[in-house]
Amino acid sequence: MSQPENQLQPNVQPNVPVSPEPMAPLPQKPDTLTRIAVDKFMKNKLAVAGLILLVFIIFAAIFAPVLTPYEPSSQQLLKKLTPPNGEHWLGVDTLGRDMYTRMLYGARVSLLVGFASVAASIFIGTIVGAVAGYYGGKIDAFLMRVVDVFLAFPSLFLLITLVTIFDPGIDKLIMAFALFGWTATARLVRGEFLSLRSREFVLAAKTMGVKSSKIIFSHILPNAMGPIIVTATLNVGIVILAESALSYLGLGIQPPTPSWGNMLQDAQSLTIMYEAPWYPIFPGLMILVTVLAFNFVGDGLRDAFDPKMKS
């Protein structure tokens, strides 16, 4: 039988090419605060240059016995005040000691005093500031009055007095710098804790019954590490400069231990300045370059950790 005429014919579509649907872009991993800070720091050319200089100076100080064939205290009196040459790159001092060797070993002393004293002062200041900022009230008032007492005394004169009373040495300098260097850190950490203790994550931790010590060191302190790192970096340069000044005055590192400061002290004679004008240039230049490098790195870290500088 024939099919009825009014029966619908199947709707056959011509072969039309179908364009594929555009793929959704893959979700990008959000930048972390650390990555943003690193990118910001790497864009600061002075900070990167300062970091490279610091790495070079620290490397030279650590591997000083490998980088020089001389001992820092070995004397060659017949060669005293020899100007820089192929054998003695930075010349020879008044006792016939190689200046290049003493510069390398002097870097060890200056960096040791700087890092150790700043580490101790940051530790003390962080503990005091964290306790004062977290608990507030009478504890905060008492600790801040202690800080005010320390700040009321002229630190430079007290440093000179302490170093004069006790025998000058590396350990005495570290203790003196740590004793008078923690107050600024305490105030800084206190301010950070006062602004962070009312945040939601802190209130949530308190609601869950987390101990105060864990809240302080596991929740609040990691969020306040940026300003602390910046302060520590800048303070190392300040301490190295102060140690050099005390050693120059004869109140710091004592000979025969090499130090950039006491190397400058040896060169303060007018006779030496006339006969060997190159003598004070190298230790003074090392102090200048090292302190500038720490300042550049500190400024770069400050800009990197500043929330206002992040996009």
Head-to-tail CA distance between termini: 79 Å
What helical percentage do the residues reach? 55-70%
What is the name of the CATH class?
Answer: Mainly Alpha
CATH superfamily: MetI-like
Radius of gyration, in angstroms, nearest whole number = 31 Å
Arithmetic mean pLDDT: 85
Q: What's the CATH architecture?
A: Orthogonal Bundle
Tally of contiguous helical segments: 14
> Percent of residues in beta strands?
under 5%
* Domain tally: 1
Series of secondary-structure elements, N-terminal to C-terminal: HHHHHHHHHHHHHH
Fold-level CATH name: MetI-like fold
Overall strand count: 0
**Main beta sheet: strand number and arrangement?**
none
Helix-and-strand structural type: mainly alpha
Low-pLDDT runs of 5+ residues are 24-30
The rough form would be described as elongated
